[in-house]
Structures are given as structure tokens and as C-alpha cells.
Amino acid sequence: MCRFYIYSGVPQEDLHKALRLAAERDPYAPGGFQHGDGWGYAVYTMDGSLAYYRSAKAVWRDPHVPPLGLAGLAHARAASKGEPLGLLYAHPFQAQTPDGRMIYVAHNGSVDKKALAEALGLDPKPFSDSWLLALFLAARWGDPEAAVAEAAGYVKTALNLAVLEVPGPKAYAYSYYKLPEGPERDLHERYYRLYGVRGEGWSAAVSSSLARHIEAAQEPLEPGRLYVL
Asked: 87 CB contacts (<8 Å, ≥6 apart)?
């Protein structure tokens, strides 16, 4: 369970404030759940530099604020049961593609860690499921749509993705989730739904509980479709 945003163009909304508020108290998760197991960001700055930061702190307890950029993403983590904790497991994960590009991957949901490790020829123990997912996507990022479609085959709960690609920059958002049958179906859909946000000269994709704190025009993203912001 995690929350994130990704944008292209300079946002006229305080997306980081929305992330902090949603991470500290998420009314769409069971019991006002907190996303306090670390956070991080990757930002392509105004001068063409890359700012990359990860912390084991809860985002609302960290005074550090991401710089504004031409494109960027940030993520607050709530670790899945049994997954490792600490700085190394904070999102976004940096991974290099075969042709030398770099992608920064933030993920909400859980995927089959053992199966991904087998596909990559790696021991799963040192990794989180999302870290392995980032490596899996990077190895296939020559065709981003095919990469996320293949990754969807490993989903346990959700494959909600924010991916920043450099050079470029390019910002991608993707949403795919499995819903249980029964009375909790609508609650799960509300939690996992991603929203597209648009303003003058910028666009973003945000987790549902961030959308509550954003005033710009927004609409749900279509599951199973890769968006380029």
C-alpha cells in the first residue's frame, strides 16, 4: 500500500503537500492507514539536472521538499507484509535500460516476488517486490507498453506505476488492479484508482487519496492503459 504522484510540466498545485497529507492519514485505506515506511522522489529540474532522493523517514516527518522540475515523481511507502524495510527499499527505484537510458519507478500494489526473481535470474531475498519490478521493466523498456503488459501477469493486487525516463524527460502512468468479489470491492477500487490531473501547461497522475487535496481538473485514469503525460 503506497501513494504517489508523477507530473510533466511545472505543476501549479502543491503535489508534495497532497502526498504528505494522504500519507499521514489515508481515509481510503483501512482504518485511516498511514504510509510511513519511507519516501523518495526523482525530479528532472529546470536546468536539466536530476535530483534523486530516498529516505527511510515518513514523508510527513521529513522537512526535505522536492525541487520543482520539468517532470518528476514522488512516492510514500507502506510496506507489504513480509517485505524488507529501510532506505534501500524506498521508492522510486533507479534502473538502467539495455540501451543506456535510466528509469525511476514508483509502484503501488504487490506483485509475485518469487516469479519476478526467477524471470530475472536473481535471488529474491535481498530485494523487495517493487525493486524487482523496476529491474524487470527496465530490461524490457524498449517497448514500454509491452513491458507493463507483461508485468501485469505478475500482479497479486495492483500494478499502479509512475515511471520517469531520462534522458527526455518522459513521464508515464499506468494503472491495473485486481478487485475482490463482495462488499469490499468498491472500497478497493476507490483506493487503487489513479486520477489524471490537468492544469495550464502541466499534467499529473496521482493516487486517489491525493486527489482529495488537489483543486485542478481531474478524472479517473483507465485501467490497463499506459499514459504518457
From this structure: 38, 54, 55, 56
Q: Return the closest-CA partner of residue 133 out of 154, 156, 149.
A: 154
- Look at strands 69-77 and 160-166 and give their pairing: unpaired
User: From CA 164, how far away is CA 170, in angstroms rounded?
Assistant: 6
Q: Give CA–CA dist 63/67, Å, rounded.
A: 13
Give the span between the Cα atoms of 7 and 126, in whole angstroms: 31
Q: Which residue has the higher pLDDT, 38 or 117?
A: 117
With beta carbons less than 8 A apart as the criterion, state whether 45 and 70 touch.
yes
Q: Compute the distance between CA of residue 205 and CA of residue 207 in angstroms, rounded to an integer.
A: 7
pLDDT tens-digit series, residues 112-150: 999 999 999 999 999 999 999 999 999 999 999 999 999
Residue 186: count of CB within 10 angstroms of its CB: 10
Task: Write down the pLDDT at residue 172.
Answer: 99
- The residue written with cell numbers 488492479 in the block is 177
Degrees (nearest 5) of the Cα angle 58, 61, 63? 120
Query: What topology is assigned to 2-223 in CATH?
Result: Glutamine Phosphoribosylpyrophosphate, subunit 1, domain 1 (3.60.20)
pTM above 0.90, yes or no: yes
Cβ atoms of 16 and 39 closer than 8 Å: no
* Residues 123, 163: Cα–Cα separation, whole Å: 24
pLDDT at residue 78, rounded to an integer? 75
Amino acid at 1: M
Give how far Cα 201 sits from Cα of 8, 16, 226, Å. 9, 18, 20
Distance CA 32, CA 38 (A): 18
